[in-house]
Design brief:
Elements: E1 2-3, E2 24-25, H1 27-30, H2 50-58, H3 65-86, H4 95-106, H5 111-114, H6 139-158, H7 187-198, H8 205-224, H9 228-233, E3 239-243, E4 249-256, E5 262-267, H10 269-281, H11 312-331, H12 338-345, H13 349-362, H14 367-374, H15 379-382, H16 387-400
Parallel strand pairs: 1-2
Antiparallel strand pairs: 3-4, 4-5
Helix pairs in contact: 3-6, 7-11, 8-10, 8-13, 11-12
Length: about 400
């Protein structure tokens, strides 16, 4: 499919946006003669046009499916916007163009061209109604998109494909101090979530397996502190047992996380008991075999031995269902519970990771252990879970720093 430039953003919506891997551009939009192209003698990659250059950049992240998907999304959005909205190639974009794009991300217009219609949450990339946006991006998401695009332009410049990085002219802000993690569930809200799962119906075989899966997903995400991508990519055979110097047997879970780094997560007695409970629900032996290839989360229906790994989208839907039911449970207590219900309704898989880290630090687990369990690169990242430290600061300030106004008649 060849895309032609659309000069006006008020024009009719494009009938079919094409994802990056299926995109075919006319010579004028391909970037072969982009105004920001470096001399051919300076190029250190074989790419002759913008699509090939972006593909070369993305190939560097092929070993991390989650990172690749995120980076492809941002490069794809910008490239489509450049050719459809501006009618010019990626390699001709100026600093001013990218300032316009920054505003576009906060409100992709015309929405009929760029945003998924109605209540559709996600469509296959080959679907005729596929769109690159689900809605406007939050300020935080806009900043993240620009960080990724800056990395793209910087690499293309270093590779000698572009003459310069148009985003390098952006005003540099001082890096803010790392904020405390705020997207996590308090101990009370976490109890509500557990109570909700415990009360799920189990009248039919399908309901029993679905309830067991919800309980297991919450268990392994909370006790293991896993990322969603780690949960969906790990198999049952990643559990193993070894004896320490005193002859005590301890179970571990081997996880491959960000940057293709492998770490060992302690599989506590509680986690192993829940694993056995979950496997029995599927009529499997309680203990996984070494090298077992079954996914960590099993399908509710399907033939044993032919299970496919759960997709991140399916995991997202399972958790949104659980958090939605928990929110409904709170709303049933009365209107005064609406703020807490709204928090639950907005929770996601990553909230459980933050919840686990926050609760571990609340219980005075050594920060170094939390760091290693979670696969953080430094203690500064892990220290974001130290909410109790701020609570103590608040209490001390309130108790000792007073103004002491007195009323006089």
């Amino acid at each position: 499919m060849e895309l032609l430039p659309i000069q006006s953003s008020d024009g009719p919506p494009a009938p079919h946006l094409t994802p990056l891997e299926r995109l075919r551009l006319t010579p004028g939009l391909s970037g072969v003669a982009g105004s920001n192209r470096a001399p051919a003698t300076a190029t250190r990659i074989a790419a002759a046009d913008d699509l090939a250059a972006v593909t070369a950049w993305l190939a560097r992240y092929a070993d991390s499916a989650a990172t690749l998907a995120t980076y492809r999304r941002e490069a794809e959005r910008l490239l489509l916007w450049a050719v459809l909205q501006l009618g010019r190639p990626l390699s001709s974009l100026t600093h001013e163009d990218l300032l316009t794009y920054e505003r576009f991300l906060a409100d992709p217009q015309p929405a009929a061209r760029w945003v998924l219609a109605g209540s559709k949450k996600k469509l296959a990339r080959g679907h005729p109604d596929w769109r690159p946006f689900a809605g406007p991006l939050s300020p935080r998401s806009v900043r993240q998109a620009l960080v990724i695009l800056n990395a793209l332009f910087a690499w293309l410049t270093e590779a000698g494909y572009l003459a310069g990085n148009p985003l390098a002219l952006a005003r540099r802000r001082r890096a803010p101090a790392k904020a405390r993690i705020t997207r996590y569930l308090s101990h009370d809200l976490w109890e509500t979530v557990k109570d909700t799962v415990a009360a799920m119906p189990t009248d039919t075989a399908r309901e029993r397996l679905h309830a067991a899966r919800c309980r297991w997903v919450l268990t392994v995400l909370y006790l293991g502190g896993l990322r969603a991508s780690e949960l969906t990519a790990t198999t049952m055979g990643a559990f193993f047992c070894r004896r320490d110097a005193q002859g005590i047997e301890r179970w571990w879970l081997e996880v491959t996380g960000k940057g293709n780094k492998t770490r060992l997560v302690p599989a506590t007695d509680e986690l192993i008991a829940e694993l056995a409970r979950y496997r029995r629900a599927h009529e499997l032996p309680p203990t996984p075999q070494f090298g077992e290839t079954r996914p960590l989360v099993l399908p509710v229906i399907g033939k044993a031995g032919s299970e496919k790994p759960l997709s991140r989208g399916a995991l997202h839907l399972i958790l949104k269902e659980v958090f939605g039911m928990a929110a409904t449970r709170l709303r049933g207590r009365g209107p005064e519970w609406e703020p807490q219900a709204a928090v639950l309704a907005s929770a996601s898989a990553h909230w459980l990771r933050h919840t686990a880290g926050s609760h571990m630090t609340d219980q005075q687990v050594d920060l170094r252990f939390v760091r290693d369990n979670f696969g953080h690169s430094s203690l500064s990242t892990t220290s974001g879970y130290l909410h109790s430290e701020e609570d103590a600061r608040h209490e001390a300030t309130q108790a000792r720093h007073r103004i002491g106004w007195t009323s006089k008649a």
